[in-house]
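I have been asked to look over a protein record a colleague put together. Alongside the sequence sits a line of tokens, each denoting a local backbone shape. Please read both lines and tell me whether the tokens look consistent with the sequence. I do not need a full report, just your reasoning and any doubts. I have pasted the whole thing underneath without changing anything.
>
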Amino acid sequence: MLHILGRRALSVGRLTALSATMQLRHGLLAMSGHVTSLKVYIGIFLTLMFLTGVTVAVAYVNLGQLNKVVALGIATFKASLVVWYFMHVKYQSRLTKLVVVSGFFFLAILLGLTMVDYGSREWVNPPASLQ
């Protein structure tokens, strides 16, 4: 059970104490966190829109086998911008950053193995009886 006393939040029983950043505002508990300026959000949005345009432009350029690699590279960079700024990972603890980086690492492994499988399908020559 949680009791509100003045401007402090106290926990009763086996619950742990609430974060010191919690404050009572207008009768509601509100957590204070890092506030990012509107300029940063607009800058990231414009960057994402620009990179979307680059992705579309690159799709019309014949790069051979590199088209997929370039598109995945741009998409990975855009996803990292979203995670870094919109999900506020930039302002989190080192453990949270480690979890996010390890997720991207395993995603890179999975994409790499998928690309190897996709690229090596032409190497297999099945017997004539199976065709």
